[in-house]
Design a protein that fits this description.
2 domains; two-stranded parallel sheet; alpha/beta; 279 residues; Rossmann fold; 9 helices
Length: 279
């Protein structure tokens, strides 16, 4: 299997856009891809599912132990080829300012995955090299495999950036295009099943494949041989469990639902916004 973590210096750099584009591109090529999200985020995993065609799992270094995260990861990778993990906030942002607890960097080290940094170049040129160098130097245990430049203004801008960034491979660049940006949103204001969201993700996938060489990204991920356990036997006892699932109630950890089903739950979804008997 192969895998990588998508991270950035800060929130708003384009991690989600790059993650969705990569997921969609890999899916189009027939590669079995498994998405993950670092932290207790419920919106991004829903977007991942549209792009990848499979449910996305949350990895959480604050709520779960290293062992629990590793087990969740390897179990989800059963029969999958590539893991794409979207980070949270900036690369080293976590529980406090003294450690990497709860951060994307911590999760990347736990899972032994290389990082691909997304650098928003909208208002920066040569200084981007200093940002990349600082992130590489801050923790030598974090393996940065390459960077993707986002919102590049043109060929001249790209030339300055590529001349300045000499210690990290540039895996591709995305020109500035507001039509493919994922808007900043509060919880609940953007749900993954809205038609406009699905259309936006489709556009992102096409845009990403047009501007990024997918083979270069795959080559930046070293192949790994991991002992991936086969799924355990499901319970033979079956109990029907009602699950509220609609526009108002859609924030669930995907792993929890799978565990319920493995334990014998037959999940029946219902909407709290509709009366029983309504069609």
């Amino acid at each position: 299997m192969k895998g990588c973590v998508i991270s950035a210096p800060m929130t708003g750099s384009g991690k989600t856009t790059v993650t969705l584009g990569l997921l969609a591109a890999l899916r189009t090529r027939g590669i079995s891809v498994q998405p993950f999200k670092v932290g207790p985020d419920f919106i991004d995993p829903g977007l991942h599912e549209i792009a990848a065609g499979v449910g996305s799992h949350n990895l959480d270094g604050w709520m779960l132990s290293r062992e629990a995260n590793e087990q969740l990861f390897v179990s989800a990778m059963c029969e999958k080829d590539v893991a794409i993990v979207e980070g949270v906030m900036g690369l080293y942002d976590g529980f406090d300012g003294k450690s990497d607890k709860g951060s994307t960097a911590e999760m990347a080290k736990w899972l032994d995955l290389p990082l691909i940094l997304v650098i928003d170049t909208h208002a920066v040129a040569r200084s981007a090299a200093a940002i990349v160098h600082g992130l590489r130097s801050f923790d030598s245990q974090v393996k940065i495999a390459g960077i993707i430049l986002n919102r590049v203004a043109g060929e001249g801008h790209y030339r300055i950036l590529s001349d300045a960034i000499i210690d990290t491979p540039i895996l591709g660049s995305l020109p500035a295009d507001p039509s493919i940006e994922i808007p900043e949103r509060h919880l609940g204001l953007l749900t993954a099943k809205e038609e406009r969201t699905v259309a936006r993700i489709q556009a992102i996938g096409e845009f990403f494949q047009k501007h990024i060489r997918i083979e270069g990204i795959l080559n930046a991920m070293p192949s790994q041989n991991r002992a991936i356990p086969a799924p355990g036997p499901a319970s033979t006892r079956h109990t029907r469990v009602a699950l509220a699932h609609d526009k108002a109630f859609s924030f669930y950890y995907h792993a929890n639902r799978l565990e319920l089903e493995r334990a014998g739950a037959q999940i029946t979804e219902f909407s709290c916004g509709r009366r029983f008997g309504d069609s």
